[in-house]
Amino acid sequence: MTMQTTSSGRGAIELAGVVKSYDGGETTAVDGINLKIPDGAYCCVLGPSGCGKSTILRMIAGHEDPTHGEILIGGENVVGLPPVKRRTAMMFQSYALFPHLNVRDNIAYALRVRGMSRSERYRRAEEMMATVQLGEFAERLPGQLSGGQQQRVALARAAITEPRVLLLDEPLSALDEHLRIQMRTELATMQKNLGITFVHVTHTQMEAIALADLVVVMERGKIKQAGPAREVYIAPRDRYVAEFMGGQNVLRGKVRTINGVRATMVGRGEEPIEVAFDGRHRLEKDETIEIAVRRDDIELLRPEKGKVPAGKAAVSSRIVGIEYQGNFVKVMLDATDDVAFIAFVPERRFFQDPMKVGEVVYAAWDVEHAHLMIEP
Amino acid sequence: MSRSATAGTPRSGGRPWTFYVLLAVFILYVIGLYAPMISIYILSFQDVRGGLVFPMKGLSLHWFVDLFTQVRTGDVKGSFDRSIRLAVLVTVLTVVISFLAGMAFRRRYFGDTAVFYLMIGSLVVPGLVLGLGIGLTFNFLGMRPSWYTSALGAQLSCTLPFGVLIMFAVMSRFNTAWEEASRDLGASPLQTVWLVILPILLPGLVAVALFGFTLSYDEFARTLQTAGTLNTLPLEIWSMTLNVTSPALYALGTVTTIVSFVTIGLALGSIVMIQRRRAQRIKNEA
């Protein structure tokens, strides 16, 4: 096995052409994944249920073997090795704490099966409990703990093996809304303190962008887009990623005119929409394209107050719903046929001159702020 | 709608008439269930003049002494001994095999449905017929039936399916992630069984054991043709009903009931003890 400089860090992970299929190839859960996760990164794998994200996690953990492809950790192929040899640890969905063992024995379990003496493993467990602030709960059974405490036990139980990679399967899904945000922060702190690679599987994009250095968006066994959280959020590759990450409106249209780095497209209505594009794109006339416009980039203008200002693109549409959200107002428009076209209007601005359901307005945005997506 | 609603709601000062009807049915049911048994227990405490029917004649332990000392009442001590040994043997085998089967049936494997129905099939076949078949097979093979071979097999044919069905129910609440977590933390398969699976399934296994023991202890139909020359307790009781006409028979009924209750008490007591000890440990060290 040759060491690769790009992924030779001890906790660096590389997936090369990983395929997982069941029933002799009839169903494919993971369909040819290539991915590099740097050592010490916090990586979130994001996708709806059934997209193969958990299977990827389980293959890295060593609970399932890929049908094809290689999985490298620290530059070494680990396919076929048991979890201990991989130096990975997994935090299971709903934690899978042993219900008959108290907190201390749960945390010390990995040391027990390695044959460590009771006094030594309890000393180490005690240290670990102090780090995750569980000292006073040492004698409690998992059933007597709150969700947040259970998560800390699960984390401590996994971390005591000193893994180089920690794999987290939907770690926050068992918690209620309030606790989820609190434990999310704890996870981030823990990752920084341990300094090891975290791979975190979730279907909640809020979780992913709040935590991850690297966001991986998946659909039906394939990676749709992988990159830093902000990049995936503001520059989604296609409609699927844009809609999954949320916060975006997607407009579809045909290219009408091309002029340097500007083009116009015609969508559902006959009004032309101005589109900015850079050297990465090569547009052709009559080609179908899609642009993503952030909901918070949209300004609502009353048509009677004159024309749309220069440098802005706009669509004319009717307001179909208004929801007060506290710090902003969510205005739903009928600019697109299938999904709602939504504008997030800052609360103060909206109430300076409130609009009503049924009004026809211009939804306008800076041409430069709209994002032309690579794959229509 | 409104009529049925008023029928079910308690009016001021009383319950609906349906309550009294159901109460009467329940009381009749309880009398039907327990009165015959209780009559036998009471009649077993008569003195030497005692007969098989009420009224009670005197009050003593005469028939209990008679039961264990008189030869004419049959080999009570010997058959009791055999029944207990057989029940223990059946219990151990049932627990071990049901546990293993429960583990195996968590995954699909080739022919699993067939194996399952074969197993359930032995519950459907009348016990007497099954026992007769086993007895005939032993004769055909030139083997002598006895309580620890043919009768053991015949009894397992009913305790095993029950044991496995209980294990299915127990296993359905077993989270396979516990096993995976154990493996993830470096445990060998044997360590996982010993440190995780067995302790978690322990209450279920006690239930299987209890079932196996009580089923075997008073099993009659399957044992009749398979016990060979030496009787188990139920067979002994049955033959006594044919030739013993004294309250010694009732005394035997009382004794066997006490043994059953003691067994169940021990099993439940051990579960309560385990839970108390766990709770105590938590309290002490917290």
**On the 0-100 scale, what is the average pLDDT of chain B?**
84
Low-confidence runs of chain A: 1-7
What is the oligomeric state here?
A: heterodimer
- Named at the architecture level, the CATH assignment of the domain at 75-243 in chain B is Orthogonal Bundle
Strand fraction band of chain A?
Answer: 25-35%
Give the averaged pLDDT of chain A, no decimals.
87
| Cα distance spanning the termini of chain B | 56 Å
Q: Which two protein chains have the largest interface (Cβ within 8 Å of the partner's Cβ), and how many residues from each? A: A-B, 31 and 22 residues
Total strand segments of chain B:
0
Proportion of beta-strand residues of chain B? under 5%
Question: Care to describe what's here?
Answer:
- The complex is a heterodimer of chains A (376) and B (286).
- Chain A is elongated.
- In chain A, the strands form 4 sheets. Chain A has a 6-stranded mixed β-sheet, with helices on both faces.
- By secondary structure, chain A is α+β, with helices and mostly antiparallel strands.
- Mean pLDDT of chain A is 87; it is low at 1-7.
- Chain A has 2 domains: 5-234, Rossmann fold (3-Layer(aba) Sandwich), CATH 3.40.50; 239-372, RNA polymerase II/Efflux pump adaptor protein, barrel-sandwich hybrid domain (OB fold (Dihydrolipoamide Acetyltransferase, E2P), Beta Barrel), CATH 2.40.50.100.
- The two termini of chain A are 40 Å apart.
- In chain A, strand 7, helix 6 (177-194) and strand 8 form a beta-alpha-beta unit.
- Chain A has helices at 53-61, 83-86, 103-113, 118-131, 147-159, 177-194, 205-211, 229-234, 239-245, 347-352; strands at 13-22, 27-37, 42-46, 68-73, 76-77, 88-91, 165-169, 197-202, 214-219, 222-227, 248-259, 262-266, 272-276, 288-294, 299-301, 312-324, 328-333, 341-346, 360-366, 371-372.
- Chain B has 286 residues and is mainly α.
- Chain B has a domain at 75-243: MetI-like (MetI-like fold).
- Helices cover 74% and strands 0% of the residues of chain B.
- Chain B has 12 helices and no strands.
- Chain B has helices spanning 2-8, 17-43, 62-69, 76-104, 112-124, 127-140, 150-171, 176-184, 189-217, 221-224, 233-243, 248-285.
- In chain B, helix 3 (62-69) packs across helix 12 and helix 9 (189-217) packs antiparallel against helix 12.
- The N and C termini of chain B lie far apart (56 Å).
- Residues 1-6 of chain B have low confidence and may be disordered.
- The chains are: A alpha+beta (376), B mainly alpha (286).
- Chain A binds chain B through residues 61-63, 82-84, 88-90, 92-94, 96-100, 102, 109-110, 112-114, 138-141, 144, 157-158, 161, and chain B through 175, 177-178, 180-188, 191, 195-196, 199-200, 278, 281-282, 285-286.
